[in-house]
Amino acid sequence: MSASQTLGGPSRCGRVLGPSLDKIIKNAAWRKHSHLVSSCKSTLDKLETLSDSALSDPTSPLLGLSSSDAEFILNPILLALDSNYAKVAEPALECTIKLFSLGLILGEIDSNSSNSILYKIVESVCKVGGIGEESVELAVLRVLLSAVRCPCVLIRGDCLLHVVRTCYNVYLGGLNGTNQICAKSVLAQIMLIVFTRAEEDSIDVSLKTVSVNELLEFTDKNLNEGSSIYYCQNFVSEIMSASEGVPDLKLSQPGPVQELQNGESRVSKGEEKEEVGEEETKEGVESGSSGISSKIREDGFLVFKNLCKLSMKFSSQENPDDQILLRGKTVSLELLKVIMDNGGSVWRSNERFLNAIKQYLCLSLLKNSALSVMSIFQLQCSIFTSLLTKFRSGLKAEIGIFFPMLILRVLENVLQPSFLQKMTVLNLLEKIAGDSQVIIDIFVNYDCDVDSPNIFERIVNGLLKTALGPPPGSTTTLSAVQDITFRHESVKCLVGIIKSMGAWMDQQLKIGDSDLPKSFESDTSAESHSTPTAEDGTVPDCELHPEMNPELSDAATLEQRRAYKIELQKGVSLFNRKPSKGIEFLINTKKVGDAPEEVASFLKNNTTGLNETMIGDYLGEREEFSLRVMHAYVDSFNFKSMDFGAAIRFFLRGFRLPGEAQKIDRIMEKFAERYCKCNPNSFTSADTAYVLAYSVILLNTDAHNSMVKDKMTKSDFIRNNRGIDDGKDLPEEYLGALYDQIVKNEIKMNADSSVPQSKQANSLNKLLGLDGILNLVSWKQTEEKPLGANGLHIRHIQEQFKAKSGKSESVYHAVTDVAILRFMVEVCWGPMLAAFSVTLDQSDDRLATTQCLQGFRHAVHVTAVMGMQTQRDAFVTSVAKFTFLHCAADMKQKNVDAVKAIISIAIEDGNHLQEAWEHILTCLSRIEHLQLLGEGAPTDASFLSVSNTETDEKTPKSAGLQSLKKKGTLQNPAVMAVVRGGSYDSTTVGVNNSGLVTPDQINNFIANLNLLDQIGNFELNHVFAHSQRLNSEAIVAFVKALCKVAISELQSPTDPRVFSLTKLVEIAHYNMNRIRLVWSRMWNVLSDFFVSVGLSENLSVAIFVMDSLRQLAMKFLEREELANYNFQNEFLRPFVIVMEKSNSAEIRELIVRCISQMVLSRVSNVKSGWKSVFMVFTAAAADERKNIVLLAFETMEKIVREYFPHITETETTTFTDCVRCLITFTNSRFNSDVSLNAIAFLRFCAVKLAEGGLVCTDKSWDDSSSISIANKDDSDVQSFTDIDDHGSYWVPLLTGLSKLTSDSRLAIRKSSLEVLFNILKDHGHLFSRTFWIGVFSSVVLPIFNGVCEKRDMHIKDEQVSPTSKSPHPDGSMWDTETSAVAAQCLVDLFISFYNVLRPQLSNVVSILTGYLRSSVQGPASTGVAAMFRLTGELGSRLSEDEWREIFLALKEAATSTLPGFMKLLRTMDDIKVPDNSESYTNTETCSDHGLTNEDLEDDNLQTVAYVVSRMKSHIAVQLLIIQVISDMYKTHVQFLSAANINIIVEIFSSVASHAQQLNSETILQKKIQKACSILELSDPPMVHFENEAYQNFLNFLQDLVKNNPSVSEGMNLESLLVAVCEKILQIYLNCTDYHYVQQKSADMPVTHWILPLGSAKREELAARTPLLVSALKVLSGLEGDSFRKYTSSFFHLLVDLVRSEHSSGEVQLVLSNIFSSCIGPIIMQ
């Protein structure tokens, strides 16, 4: 043993080599291997002498030894390997493994490298694998993997390929399954090593160990011999870990292999220097570094290229079923899959590697796509998935072709798919669906790109078709189980897609952190591209080429592109049905220019899937535009120096000739013309070309149409074309060659294929000319044909790849703007809705239904957040319908799951549901209904119905489902209705009441209620409790929806319920602490709801609602409110509206009680709510129910008495509302106490107002800031155009009282008058001048307006109908007492505030004279008294003009009634008053009328009676006017000017002359006297009137003449005085009948009898005597001169008096006095 331990000497290599050489010597056949043995021995000897040198030789292949020694030492190993003898080879292999594993071999191994010994060893190892020994095979694999793995060795170029090929061969022809699996694993591991190094461009990289299990995913499962997989995994892991401990000897040595060291230093092109640290201290980076760094990549490139080529090997014709070839192809694809799965960014960033994928891998996929071998298809799909998920940014065009070819082709085959193929595709799609970025990118780059297929749309539609299964009635190769599997898988994929869309959206919104509704800003900032690392550690494909950064496309351009594409496709499909319509549409939508050349170019390029037959049809049309297009189309070809046959072939590539001869004729004619133009020397004329073209077309059809049996021969063809060249023949050789061309090679279109045109209905296939490819793929061909049969197609596609790569469309777009999802949803929502709904409807598989509900949830999430209302509502409605709550008897577990989905949607996406909340809340309402029924609780209807006593007795109270099973409850109509079911949209469950319910249905229903127990109250309530977390938009939408549901519940005719109503109250509680802004928006909705339900005809419901509102309000009033806000008022508004509109007294009473309770318990928080409170009480005050009025007033009393400061605390305008409310109470007709108290409270309010409780009163009153007064009766406020703040509060108070003065109740009138004037008097000093004017005109004057106007009106009426009786008592007609008080107050007020009110004098005077105009004595005397008091108090302060105003008003009062009065008297003229003696029984009828005399007289007498009474009052009023003027004159004579005195004179004069006029109406007087005696009335005091009028006039004038000589002289009053005296004398004389005397002739005395006067005359004379005496005394009192002056005028009257008869001696006395003392002296002179 000891010898073997020291074998090989002190060096490390020796310690490895020694035992192996020893073993070789022992195992070798001495004779056969003598050279080998001697070599081994000499090597062993040499090793004894060698030790590791400190300085290693850079060129040496072994560590620590010189290069010559190394070669010598390795030689025996090489010989042993070359011996082809297993026993010798094995130790050599073992030794080699150790040398590689321990890192003892160094250097670069290549066919042309300096270390040829190493190359030879590797070559020999590769060779020795073929000697047919299992153990040797495994050892070879081990050596090769160690060599590739070794960090000190770089195997390059051909050597590397040789290594790979060796493993390949072991895999293909290995001695057992385990070895084959090992070979495959080693190959895979080698690929990982090579490409990981190429990725990093460095040897020193961390390596992943391959997973054997994954390698057997698609193939070779049959090779597994029990524990093979485990064995192979260990096999690989062992070798991989063996080299891991190799010390990095390169650093400890100055420089073993320079190039390698440079390779190690990881300074790859432009990459960061990651681990250069210590290595920088070395000799620096040599210029060869770039050489070696690219060597590593070069090797990778080489391996990749060769693998692709291997994968494209096809079997030969002789051996079509070459299984080994197939396995080789398969393993190449598997290795390519490993490379792609582990590939990193180098494949994207390095142009060469990217091109390698495009050139080799894509070609391989393309060529293998036609194979029907399942494993190859799976591998292709898998490689394609890698390309798509990782490298799509560089492979846009390629993916655009492969996706339809590999994936969509299989996906869209619904009827006869291969089960495994389709499952592979579905699994692949599921994987893709899991990567949200891929889904988005596919849509952006293909569906939004005009030149690409709509991949996303087709995926979704294909999945939908699969999910719906084969259409009914179609024949399919699928078994039922397979169909179901497909359906479930495709639903799973759809769910994955919508889930990914949601995830991407959430991620983008988080990154952008943008609030969605503003506008989807595209966030192109760096952080939106913080490239997240995928699970496998590779960077996903979103860090794109630099040239793509500008293409971080915003949604707007994408939207345009998408819209453009959709419109274009619409035009194309229209063209494929009706070409001319299609072209017209495309021109109108600006997709094609309107010039024929542009249309022709569009048809010629045909990139968009136009049907070639239709192009031909269109070109052959004879319409003008089509013709021009056809000409442009043909003219666009250049046939220069083209053979005629080639030209026709070239021409017909793009369209199929139409069937109609005329159309062909037109096209060919133009073709011939164009050909001749391009080749002028070809034919003598275009005719020749035209005929020949036609012949060629006929020949083509003849030769290649299977329907033509007798084919045309060459001679036939030549014969047919005789003489066409202008009568001459074309050369036979020319025609013969043409014939051969056509017969051998059919003239056909580019895309002409073996598939009939009709099958290509889907124009999308045409995109990118995919028809050919898809047809290529759909042929069921064996493996050897593809290249031969379809080389053309493959070349065509390669051309397309090249063409594409140059186009701008190949730019790859990335999007971070969530708006793109809108377009995606528009594409996919319909298919998804259909797929989920149908599956949910038809399947009872819990897994499938759960998937669908998941899909619905994600779909709702995306559509809701993106604000796509229609789509969101569609999804939510579908889920809601699937709850089956509307027909509970048919419920299943899946329906309960739908209910759970609805609840989770509500909680997760509540913020975006908007109108869709309604469906969700309806479901919750129905659940609660069913749960209640299940518990057997009485329905709400039993409490809300009108008579609930009977139902209460019948409803069983026992809880639990047991109650339903009792016989009694089966009759419960609510249960019956639910079991019978209804439609989803019916408001309540079970509206249709017809049809019986079977016991089975009942039992089903009971079982289903058990199912519903899965949804507890917690889940239900959670939705409502969660409402606190909704954002401000969402909560409003939520409340709206809940209100709708609540209304439909409450309005149910059969079964009203309050579930949603109670929930409304709850959520209002939950959300009460939201900011005011949001709360007021919520409340707008809630208040409308409370109002509409509060006005409900179902009283119980209305009461319930108002009570709920009360609870809320109480809660709400706990919140503080700052000044000038309006929330409390908004909150209480529903009470007001219901109070005003409700027809139910109970509701109104309830509201009054609620408001009273709230106000009194939360008085300090009512704030702005006072407005509403007062509005409610105002409505209550006007109520027709006494108890409501009293109830409201009671509270009102308390508020005003105890809480007055609170009313105006927040907002002073509420004072106005309070006043208005009190005024309404004053109008209450039930109880005058209430009214009087209300008036008293108004007085109280005024006091408070005056105290300055509302606003500061120290501001200047004249600062009249204009304020609009909040008063309903604008008419009252008209004159308050400019009033100050303070004033605005007085206005309603004063106008209210003012109106009350015309109340029909005396006490109220009186009280309001007193209060009004007291207020004005007590607080008037606070009013500004302008305000006073306003008050006067708006408050004070209207009180009297009523009085005066009404009176005037009555007078006018009476003039028209004198027969009417005394005026009817009217509410607004005051009694004398009130009038007196009013006038009194008015004058008091005016006097008190004379300084301010002085301008109002005319108004006051007109009011008082208004009293005088009255035809009634009472008011007139009031007016007189007031007038007298007014002048009495103010006499000295009145100006001349004011006096003038007063007197003129009095004059007007005196004279204004005269014309009317006289007119009234005239009515007496036609009336005959019968004598007393005349019989009343006279029945003689009036000739015209059928009236008896009696009737007539009755009427007449009544009229007379009326005239008499009017006369009396008229006289009284006139006398009062005279009286007051005399009094005024006496009192204030010193203040009166001449002008004013003149007016007084005029008044006296007019009254006196009026009185005289009255008295001169003797006939009238007689009539009246007669009538009075009949009616037993006293006569009107006409004489008295006349006496008084003249007496006062006389006294006045006498006084003036005596005491005011200056005025009397100026006005010549003395003569007036004399004239009046004369008048008096004359009147007296007239009365004595003395006028007869005047008629005598002066010359001839006639004697006549002087008869004594009758008694009536005597009385009249007696009455007139005092006046006469006064007049005579006045005359006698005149001064001598004056008397003498006027004597002549009145002397004859004195004489007459002497002759007359007098009733008293006084007259004679005065007369004699005049004669003696006045006339005597004149005569005596």
From TrEMBL:
Subunit (UniProt):
Homodimer.
Example GO biological process term? protein transport
Q: What is this protein called?
A: Brefeldin A-inhibited guanine nucleotide-exchange protein 1 isoform X1
**SMART domains per record:** Sec7 (SM00222)
- Which residues belong to any copy of the SEC7 domain? 557-745
One cellular-component annotation, GO: cytosol
Record localization: Cytoplasm, Cytosol; Membrane
List UniProt keywords, sorted A-Z: Cytoplasm, Guanine-nucleotide releasing factor, Membrane, Protein transport, Transport
The answer to whether UniProt assigns keyword Transport to this entry is: yes
Q: Which gene encodes it?
A: LOC18608388
- What Pfam families does the entry give? BIG2_C (PF20252), DCB (PF16213), Sec7 (PF01369), Sec7-like_HDS (PF09324), Sec7-like_HUS (PF12783)
InterPro entries associated with the record: ARM-like, ARM-type_fold, DCB_dom, Mon2/Sec7/BIG1-like_HDS, Mon2/Sec7/BIG1-like_HUS, Sec7/BIG1-like_C, Sec7_C_sf, Sec7_dom
The ranges of region (Disordered) come to: 251-292, 515-553
Q: Which organism is this entry from? A: Theobroma cacao
The UniProt regions of compositional bias labelled Polar residues, in chain numbering, are: 522-533
Which topology term describes how it sits in the membrane? Peripheral membrane protein
Sample GO molecular function, one term: guanyl-nucleotide exchange factor activity
